[in-house]
């Protein structure tokens, strides 16, 4: 390894070699920077909302603008950042490397997915610049069929991005099944691959339903087909069923890859074989499956029968079992390991705290009686952000720090990264924990103004949201700052002493064709009890 | 890479051998078929729900569809599935001309299907049997005001409208536009698939004529074949659900 200067970042050269690339690593990087851009846009919208909520009245924006802000914050964060970020960016870069393959199964399809994502993104930018959309990211009928804002462009954007997501999932499934290097059997796969596989299964089975729902919503607006209009014999609740049949599994599209990242970071930075490999692998698949059967818990107040409420509530609790299996497996992996507090590990530890709080408050919301009280309050907002930001985004940042030296061959300043990671943890709790209290006291979500009795808690949350924004900004800028030329690492470096193939069998950054010679599997991904590998860190 | 020397020109660089490439493409196609089934699945759910809520309306509106045209289309599409399968069989035996002929026949069947569909749509547009707000067909309501038995009989004969002898009146359909909304969306989406399939078959004909497909490499044809059978299969469900519920 490391006897050549050729790597995928510099070879071949030229802007067209990037725009028309079939290399999964380059496509992954384009997804990464696209995702980070929209993370920034969505984050600014969030900070704008928090600024408005610092005081009870309409201080900065009108109610209409506020409606647009939360709709676009939700839709951009979900459809343009969280869903594509981990599979599209980290998944694309790492999956073939972890499998010992030269590329994903369908490289051209992979590029096509990226361009679909870009076209969808253009629709969103158009909506952002042309006055926004005010339905909330859920697009509930009948309001979404009558609102005079840009519902059409937004749903069109989601429709197109949906296909991008489907094609990525399809590509990954074929890749995991057929592109593994000889000898790499299913139980020798890194757990990140299992997570991507489970995610892909959900992507190809749930996303078509949101696509057709968006088509129906567009037809309802264009032709007045009346399928969701009670005045014409239609049913608006059917829209909610269609929407959540996708959007609940979509929560697992967002969180499963995060589980995969945590399953990689914890054994590497604890220098210990992962505990309960098969439990973690199968819990991924069972979460993917159970995720399809619980959509009704979003609709406890939509007039379901009591029987369906009870059944959906009961099945919802089942999600806790495989999730608990994962949390305990990660904790037992760390037990008696040599835990080092590197930036990726700090993110993984914050994930364990934050995601557990998010998961446990999910049990509150899964109980019908409590949910009817907490529905549409800040409790739901806090729960969702603990799972999505405290879970997925924290794991994404951890994964980004873990594989940054692999992707770019540079090491960031670890002290600054650690400070940013701790800042994210503290500021996140400062921002969102008070929102549980707001929700319990009855503060409804999606309002620009509120009763003055909530002002202390709201302004406290706003203060910490600023610190949170700054922490994330410092963390990401620290990564980008490491890209300057003087900072190159030796191509053979393995800074965390990891055993998965992307670290042991190829250089950092990798060769354009991934491996200079056909990779031969010599050890399992977590064989720290059998193989001695020391972290190497050379400039 | 060491095995590059022996690899044929149709092997992409990231596969080890021809077999891996073939199996991977086929798996990808099946995964795509799964997404198609779920796309149509959403619409089948909508169909089921509205039919369960409006059984009489679905029954009466169904009588406004032309069963004969639907039946002919079913036969045409099943025949095209056969010719598609024969095209793959022929290319596996390296009979390129036969394969080309079979592809051409498949293409013609697809064209025939869309032609007949056009006639059906055109008739419905003319009568105003359209989705949602555009529904303007007043057949049943107009007849209700006519008390002349002969005229009623004539109307029943020419328009296939359901007449209830016990109540001695024609059924007034409640929200028939929903039936036509679902009908047009489902058959329209299916028709779109037929049109896309025609494009793919034309592409296969070009590839076959140029000699790019042969007994050792016919993955494209196999994949389009799977797609085409799915299109056929969806119609097999659509035909009885829309035309034969009476």
| Helical/strand content category of chain A | mainly alpha
CATH superfamily of chain A: Cytochrome c oxidase-like, subunit I domain
Low-pLDDT stretches of chain A are: none
Sheet-strand content of chain A, in percent, reads under 5%
Would you tell me the structural class of the helices and strands of chain B?
mainly alpha
Proportion in helices of chain B: over 70%
CATH classification, class level of chain A: Mainly Alpha
Mean pLDDT of chain A: 94
The assembly state of the depicted protein chains is heterodimer
Most extensive interface between two protein chains, with residue counts: A-B, 44 and 38 residues
Arithmetic mean pLDDT of chain B: 86
Architecture of chain A, CATH level 2? Answer: Up-down Bundle
- The rounded Rg of chain B comes to 23 Å
Q: Give the total of beta strands of chain A.
A: 0
CATH topology of chain A: Cytochrome C Oxidase, Chain A
Poorly predicted parts of chain B: 1-5, 140-145
Describe what is shown at a glance.
The complex is a heterodimer of chains A (539) and B (246). Chain A is mostly helical and 539 residues long.
Describe the structure.
- The complex is a heterodimer of chains A (about 550) and B (about 250).
- Chain A has about 550 residues and is mainly alpha-helical.
- Chain A has a single domain (about 20-505), classed as Cytochrome c oxidase-like, subunit I domain (Cytochrome C Oxidase, Chain A), CATH 1.20.210.
- Chain A is about 65% helix and about 0% strand.
- Chain A has 17 helices and no strands.
- Chain A has helices at about 15-20, 25-55, 65-100, 105-130, 145, 150-180, 190-225, 235-270, 275-290, 305-320, 320-335, 345-365, 370-375, 380-410, 415-440, 455-480, 500-505.
- In chain A, helix 8 packs across helix 14, helix 12 runs antiparallel to helix 14 (about 380-410) and helix 12 runs parallel beside helix 15 (about 415-440).
- The longest helix of chain A is centred in the N-terminal third of the chain and has 37 residues, at about 65-100.
- Chain A starts with 14 loop residues before the first helix and ends in a 35-residue tail after the last helix.
- Chain B is mainly alpha-helical.
- Chain B has a single domain (about 25-245), classed as Cytochrome c oxidase, subunit III, four-helix bundle (Four Helix Bundle (Hemerythrin (Met), subunit A), Up-down Bundle), CATH 1.20.120.
- In chain B, about 70% of the residues lie in helices and about 0% in strands.
- Chain B contains eight helices and two strands; from the N terminus they run H-H-H-H-H-H-E-E-H-H.
- A two-stranded antiparallel sheet of chain B has the order 1-2.
- In chain B, helix 1 (about 20-55) packs antiparallel against helix 7 and helix 7 (about 175-210) packs antiparallel against helix 8.
- The longest helix of chain B has about 35 residues, at about 20-55.
- The model of chain B is unreliable at about 1-5 and about 140-145 (pLDDT under 50).
- At the A-B interface, helix 6, helix 7 and helix 8 of A face helix 1 and helix 7 of B.
